[in-house]
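As described in the Methods, two query proteins were run sequentially through the folding procedure within a single session, without resetting any intermediate state between them. The first query and its resulting structure tokens are shown here.
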Amino acid sequence: MGNSTTLNSELDNFRVSFDKIKNLLVNRFLLFGLIVAFIAVIIPILPINTAPLSEGFYFDFINLGALLTIYLLKNKLSLSFKISFIIVIIYSFFITNLFQEGLGALSNSLIILVPFLSIQIFSVRQTIGIHALAILSFLGVGKVHLEKPYSFGNPEFTNGLIEWGIYALLLSLVCLVVALLVYYLNDSMLRLINRIELNNQQLIKQDTILKQNIEEKKVLLQEIHHRVKNNLAVVSGLLDLQSNRAPDDFSRTTLKLSTNRILSISKVHELLYQSEDISRIHFKQYVKELADIIIDSFNKTGKEVKLSLDVHIPYLNINHGVPVGIILNELITNSLKHGFSQHQENYQITISALEEMDHYSITYADNGSGITLSESENSVGGLGKTLIESLLQQIEATYTLNTENKYQLSFRFPK
């Protein structure tokens, strides 16, 4: 469930609206445009003098203030409003400076920005209409600058008309190229984002299906572990009943040992079907519950056995959990039956576990007399020793054994 939620969150974050991209572009454009416009308006009046300023300066200053206001409110205004307002301001700058300075106005190149911005929110047809209005305004202002009389017989009028016409044609061509480039770029990005959106939707559908399949398999595996645990509980119950009818202590002890070995396996399956992660068991909980069951089962003399756990392995998978559980079962049983057979002041079992880089390390110790399983001459002790050695070999463990006035087995096995 957690992995699915994380994937959906990543897909939501990955969805990038095309309007957000354009909005970011326009905000950056506003910032840099504001800086350039400020420089263009302020520098001509430096150094400051008392000479009267032109009407065009005040008009430009008003436009600059409007541009600053739009920038300050950029996060509260819609994309279409911001672009439309910027186009109006650029158009005002363009016409005002063109009217004052004619073809020599530096702001004439601003006309290129009109189709660049217009194509972001308007259609191609609307952009052409806006650009046509700008060019007609350009030619209309040009008429003011042409030499009178307005007659083709006047060479100055004819040359000026040709110059303004060529300039208008060049501006139109440049604006057309800019508009087409931006249009195809927008179209390509929009197609890409739509494709990504479609892929995201397909991924979400697939993720939903996979999540459902995983949940179904998880429920099925939990049911399997539950059934295995119940079947093992039936077997251990039958053995327990049989032990009550055994003719001698040796038979009863043998059956009790087999019962506890089955319970150690059953406990693994019980923890697995109760866990959210059905591939591993909570190791400290497992060791604590298993040790309590065995101590209650074999400690018939009423000895107060202190169990000390220092477990730093959070989880074990089932391939390690079952053999380690049976090993601990044999070791605890050995301590209760043989290690604590003599009277002493206190009885203590210590189990420590440590997770290393590539290995697990487990140490079992008691403070008993140090009798090992091999010292028991009966078949029960021999079976326990053989079982421990076989299980250590199964998990590819290396081990050391110390039995001087205690029993301590340390084993280390790869993850």
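Immediately afterward, the second query was submitted; its sequence and tokens are:
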Amino acid sequence: MAAASILRTPLGRRVKVIEQGTGRPVVFLHSGVGSAGEWRQVFSLWPEGYRLVAIEAYRDGTGPGVARSRTLDDYADQVHAVAEHVGACVHLVGFSWGGATSLRVAAAAPELVDSLAVIEPEAYALLRPQNTEAYAQIAGLRDRWRTHVRAGRWYEAYEEFIDFYNGPGSFARWPAPRRETFLAVQQAKGDLWDVLFDDRLLRLDALATMTAPVHVIWGSQTSAVDHAICEVIRRPVPHAQHTLIDGAGHMIPLTHPEPLTRALLTGIRG
């Protein structure tokens, strides 16, 4: 049974974690607009012999730094807290936003990471020197989002955002109470885009020096941007493993938990 606890981070903040099982530690990082609940189905499918720890980046803690001035290292601080908590190196799994954080941790603190799996990581800074078309597309989404938010149009900002990752009309199909709750949570987080475009902390040359095994996972139905970032990441990483999940879009932990769990276990056991 999963249990929640609050950890103190090396930078003196707090982070909530959800734990399940005993054995080899595997740490899971959720997407920027999501929560640790994204891993519920994966946890239910996972075999015994592992200590699963899902980081809850925002809820029930002081949060990762100060809004509007956060960096990837504020999120990496939460992973450091978990590594101290379990007292061992970890297998690190990062989805979307969490994938960008995972890349930063593996590059900057390789002694903490036994293996790394990234599921369509939003490490958009890496696109600029490698795929200008994909970079322009995601930068355009960022800029339109900011234009909507500055005008107080939070619904419009997230309608385009959610539809970009999930297909046209996705946000409108959510039940109204779910949309309202979601928008309230996102407004409290503020603007998180700059973290993903930070080319000081997300660098291709750092990927080439990674020592841990790296597994890049993406869906066959994902956006051109997400496909491009996965291709960019796996090229410079020595001996990177990659898995394409047939029929999946961006939200793989929610829509395709069974093949995702199999892929993650293959990377860890291998």
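The first helix runs from residue 40 to 45. We note this only descriptively and draw no conclusion about the first query from it.
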